[in-house]
Specification:
The protein is about 20% helix and about 35% strand. The chain is α/β, with parallel strands linked by helices and about 700 residues long. It folds into 5 domains: about 1-65 and about 655-685, no CATH class; about 65-170 and about 610-625, Rossmann fold, CATH 3.40.50; about 175-275, Immunoglobulin-like, CATH 2.60.40.10; about 280-510, Rossmann fold (3-Layer(aba) Sandwich); about 520-595, Immunoglobulins (Immunoglobulin-like), CATH 2.60.40.10. The longest helix has 21 residues, at about 15-35. It is elongated. The two termini are about 50 Å apart.
Length: about 700
């Protein structure tokens, strides 16, 4: 029970103050003039003001509340480095015992903070949420048992009590990390990309001036780079060898004594693009299909097209001077001997052996293909005759031999069973442009095709009488395609509804130029956050289980399901950040999920700097656990809350009022009697 005097004025404090002020002015005037009885008039005024102020005797019944101490225990990944787990466990147990031993019982609110994805340590958020669960008037103090590394600065706004940091880790700890300051999202295939790399030591580092650096591209051969300086930004140059996504992995070996090697590695995805696709199109004679090839290639702004059409055979004997056979000289020497390797694709469209290209030039084209070039031949009647390209040195790379027979009856191109599984022709039978006839939907008909016997590769389309129409093959490191007809232009004109000529020729040219997305026997992985999709393409059979090797070296297997002819797919959820290696048979692929090092390992050396502002503002302290636990004592509000070897919890003395009773200090008639008595004494004094 607590008693006190409170005032409940009759007219409000403003009016009461005005009346009191007017009375004081009159009393001052009377005192200045020396009037007798001024003292008694002052007492009478005080009695009247007391009656108007209405003093009350207030009696409270209070229920005291115990103080609360908030404790946040950091159990995130960075808190597992070194001996921090043992430090944290010992400190948490000791702190509970020390607070429990205090004479005036204190409630404990303990929060154990763990990782949430790759968001890092949300220490300030945990403190704010714990403090928000309690009345600020009850909070005696807050403790954070942590290495001090946090990733949510600004989440904690104000503190109602001192914040103390019990810091894990060792003063001798040090760590080395590798990170990329700048890297391009795209790079030109065949050219180097520049990455700005930084290797940084923190903590009690040994002062190594430079360290070796290694790299791989798409999980391939390890590249030993030059030693790079520590604590300095240096550019690295790596050459992209293929189009599409390239995964660059750069690392430095672990050093003796550093906290973790998880942040010694970075992953840089760079998309490889071709600068300009250089295509050489040689048309043996003018005809309607020539425009189809030209329109297709010119429609792509990334294609540099060099197109030559032989308008007149050099063998024609009509007396025309040789120098007047063309508007410009056909630069055969320059194109087919000196600069043939500059082209990404060479197309012979209705081209025959006419003396324009001697055998050494064609032999050079065959060498170009075997060294990684791309060749497409599209012809019918010319390929069957004695002046066929098959009768030249190109024979060693061409995938099919002509029989000499030419089919000239109408036929509809069809995709073979193998073609249904090949990326070039997969799904084309569902492409727009099919027309309905008695046999169901089909493409427009063609009318001429050369009969060929496949020598290498595989047939993906057939034509008249089931003869091979489109033959694809590899020759050495390069690729070759033979289209045994020159009438694809009928589809481009929309004859009988046309067909998917644009998509077919686009896929065909990009497959020849080794576009990764069109590989027919490949294993790929793609990540969307932690969800990884594994895709396997193959022409025959079904794939075996795919072995997944996680960044920590653990392995698992998944089975793929067929989602389209020749296309198989499976998925898994990555529970680690870094590079996953996928393997099935002889095929290997890599996929990167998240950063190479979790956010927790970016800067693992313990520090108090990130919480220093809150600690200083609240009057708390920092205590390194390697020096021992601080004593816990109670302090009064407004007093120092931390010192050498001790941390304070403020006495808050919080309570709730369970009963309130007020009664007048004196009845109104008593105040009036006093006022009248003092006024009468003043009158009597003046009357004398």
């Amino acid at each position: 029970m607590i008693s006190s005097i409170v005032f409940v004025p009759q007219f409000g404090w403003v009016l009461l103050a005005a009346l009191g002020g007017a009375g004081l002015v009159l009393l001052a005037l009377a005192a200045w003039r020396g009037l007798p009885g001024t003292f008694w008039r002052a007492l009478s005024l005080a009695a009247l003001l007391g009656a108007l102020a209405n003093p009350q005797l207030q009696q409270e019944t209070r229920q005291p509340y115990p103080d609360v101490a908030v404790i946040v225990v950091d159990e995130t990944t960075s808190a597992s480095l070194g001996d921090r787990v043992e430090q944290t466990a010992r400190a948490a147990a000791a702190l509970e015992n020390l607070i429990a031993a205090l004479p005036d019982g204190i409630e404990l609110d303990i929060t154990r903070l763990s990782d949430q994805g790759n968001d890092g340590t949300r220490l300030e958020t945990a403190l704010a949420e714990a403090l928000g669960r309690h009345d600020p008037r009850r909070v005696a103090g807050a403790f954070a048992i942590s290495d001090g590394r946090l990733h949510d600065a600004g989440a904690l706004q104000t503190l109602p009590a001192p914040l103390h940091l019990l810091q894990t880790g060792r003063e001798a700890d040090w760590d080395r990390r590798v990170f990329v300051e700048n890297a391009p999202a795209y790079g030109i295939v065949g050219e180097s990309v520049e990455i700005m790399l930084r290797i940084e030591d923190s903590g009690a580092a040994p002062g190594t001036p430079a360290v070796p650096v290694f790299a791989t591209i798409n999980g391939g051969e390890v590249i030993r780079l030059n030693d790079q300086p520590v604590n300095a930004s240096t550019p690295l140059s790596l050459i992209l060898r293929r189009a599409g996504e390239n995964i660059l992995e750069i690392w430095t070996p672990a050093a003796t004594g550093e906290l973790t090697e998880a942040n010694n590695r970075v992953i840089v995805p760079v998309t490889g693009v071709r600068d300009r696709l250089r295509v050489l199109l040689v048309s043996g004679e003018p005809y309607a299909g020539e425009r189809t090839w030209r329109n297709l290639l010119k429609a792509d702004p990334a294609v540099d097209l060099v197109h030559f059409t032989i308008l007149r055979s050099p063998e024609k004997q009509d007396g025309v001077p040789y120098t007047e056979l063309s508007l410009i000289a056909f630069p055969t020497q320059e194109l087919f001997m000196e600069k043939v390797d500059d082209f990404d694709l060479i197309i012979f469209d209705r081209f025959r052996r006419q003396g324009v290209l001697p055998d050494p030039y064609l032999q050079n084209i065959a060498r170009y293909v075997q060294n990684g070039g791309a060749l497409l031949v599209a012809d019918a009647e010319g390929y069957a005759g004695p002046d066929s390209l098959y009768r030249t040195p190109l024979r060693e790379v061409l995938p099919a031999a002509p029989t000499g027979q030419v089919f000239e009856q109408p036929f509809q191109p069809e995709i073979t069973e193998l073609g249904q599984r090949h990326p070039v022709t997969r799904g084309l039978d569902g492409w727009q442009g099919l027309v309905e006839n008695d046999a169901g939907p089909s493409w427009g008909r063609w009318f001429q095709q050369v009969d060929v016997i496949p020598q290498t590769g595989y047939t993906v389309m057939t034509g008249s009488s089931g003869a091979p129409l489109l033959q694809l093959a590899r020759a050495g490191a390069g690729r070759v395609a033979l289209l045994a007809s020159d009438q694809v232009w009928l589809w481009a004109r929309g004859y009988e509804g046309g067909g998917p000529q644009a998509e077919l020729l686009r896929r065909l040219s990009h497959w020849l130029m080794q576009e990764p997305e069109l590989e027919e026997d490949v294993l790929r992985g793609s990540a969307n956050g932690p969800n990884v999709t594994v895709t396997r393409s193959l022409l025959e059979g079904t794939p075996g289980p795919v072995t997944i090797t996680a960044p920590d070296g653990s392995t698992a297997e998944i089975t793929l399901s067929e989602v389209a002819p020749g296309a198989f797919q499976g998925s898994f959820t990555a529970d680690q950040s870094g590079i996953y290696r996928l393997s099935e048979g002889d095929l290997v692929a890599i996929v990167a999920t998240g950063p190479a090092a979790p956010r927790e390992f970016e800067e693992p050396v313990a520090t108090s700097a990130l919480l220093a502002e809150h600690i200083n503002a609240s009057g708390g302290g920092v205590f390194r656990l390697e020096d021992g636990m601080p004593d816990i004592i109670r302090v009064n509000e407004g007093r120092l809350a931390a010192g050498r070897g001790w941390a304070g919890l403020v006495r808050r003395n919080a309570y709730a009022v369970t009963n309130l009773r007020q009664s007048p200090l004196a009845e109104p008639w008593v105040w009036l009697l006093l006022a009248a008595s003092f006024a009468l004494l003043a009158w009597r004094r003046e009357g004398r």
